[in-house]
Amino acid sequence: MFCGGAVIKTGDRGGEAACAYPPHPIRAEWREYIGIAVKVSDEGDMIRISVFNTGEGIDPQYSQRIFEPYFTTREESGGTGLGLYISRCIVEDRLNGSISMKNVKGGVEFDVTIPASREKKEQ
Predict the structure, then answer these.
(1) Which of 96, 95, 70 is nearest to 85 (CA)?
(2) Residue 8: enclosing H or E segment and its boundaries?
(3) Which residues, in sequence order, are bridge partners of residue 110?
């Protein structure tokens, strides 16, 4: 993946990284990039992956439905409404985590929280 700019800060158990394309200043909390920024943070027994993108955000009337199967506002451009549904299924059912969305100033933010370690299942 080509990244116009990246910031990586590491600590004892991990760190955080922000990457965006194109690399234009906009928001200090997202390492002053525009486009898409990804932040990974260690929260003890959980890992949070936050994805922020600039744009219009998601219309509040749709925000409760975006993780439903086949829900799309982009049928005319080929949207199937499966992307966020499948993402939710993977995060919740396979990774024992959670996924959420919120409109924030300047765009939208998706947070994925998963356990930092997975206990191996006995066979």
Answers:
(1) 70
(2) strand 5-10
(3) 51, 101
pTM above 0.90, yes or no: no
Look up residue 50 and give its two tokens.
């936050």
Q: Which residue reads 């086949």 in tokens?
A: 70
Give the chain's mean pLDDT: 75
What is the per-residue pLDDT for 68? 93
Q: Which two tokens stand for residue 108?
A: 């939208």
Nearest CA among 21, 86, 5, 11 for reference residue 47: 11
Comparing CA positions, the residue from 4, 71, 79, 68 lying closest to residue 38 is 4
97, HSE (Cβ side, Cα atoms, 13 Å)? 21
Check residues 4 and 55 and name the one with the higher pLDDT: 55
pLDDT above 80 for 45: yes
Cα separation of 68 and 82, whole Å?
A: 8
